[in-house]
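Attaching the record inline, Q. Sequence:
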Amino acid sequence: MRLVRFLHQGQPAWGIVEGEEVYLVEGSVYEAPARGPRVGPLASLKLLAPAEPTKIVAYAGNYKRLITRDGRPLPDLATYEPLLFLKAPTCLIGPEEPVVYPAIATRVQHEPELAFVVKKRARHVPLAEARDYLLGFTIANDVTAENVHGRDIHLARSKSFDTFCPCGPFLETDLDTRDLRITLWLNGEVAVDDRTSDRIWDDARILHEASKIMTLLPGDLVLTGVPMYRRWETRNIKPGDVMEIAIEGLGRLRNPVVAEE
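Structure, as predicted:
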């Protein structure tokens, strides 16, 4: 099932996409969403991020080619753990909304990622059951102001500026994410072109591990890591740029970059 979240009569609503048409979701999107009345063509709707997170959970260092760049050795994957961090829910935006380049930032970068939305309350979830807790998959962009002013030893500030988590356009409930192509174009030039098969922890492992630490709630958004860049210098963005991300089966997420006023 392909789901979208959109603006309907001035309020956020969930819809089911069939072809190019959208139908309102009847019932809870987290339990047994059913097709309701027709809303209209998908192209006519103002799409929102397809998540309602109480928190945005994210992981860094989850792609082998990324962590072994420049000849770095591959760690022992039996004991290796990608880095867990959080982004503020207020940084979430939808397709076509502008990413605001902060006035205090000197270097901001894009990070295209496969993400999933949590379906039900999750705490200490066994690995074998973890897939049952995933509502669906979407595209996210973990925009980052790289270590603001070189001061912070944690990621909270660099990851949580308003607009620093574009997400969308769709949420796919049935998708095999083991080997999907993930591509980012910056002003039409390919900056990232990799596959999710390079991940160290898959979606189930990520939910399993995260649920050991915190309670995940319905609607929470989880980002599964950024892959390797084509060239390291192509990760930086500036006002006037346009980022477009595609992941197989999930459409395209496009966001321009503007300067903070």
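The chain has a mean pLDDT of 96. The domain at 49-259 is CATH 3.90.850.10 (Fumarylacetoacetate hydrolase; domain 2).

More tomorrow.
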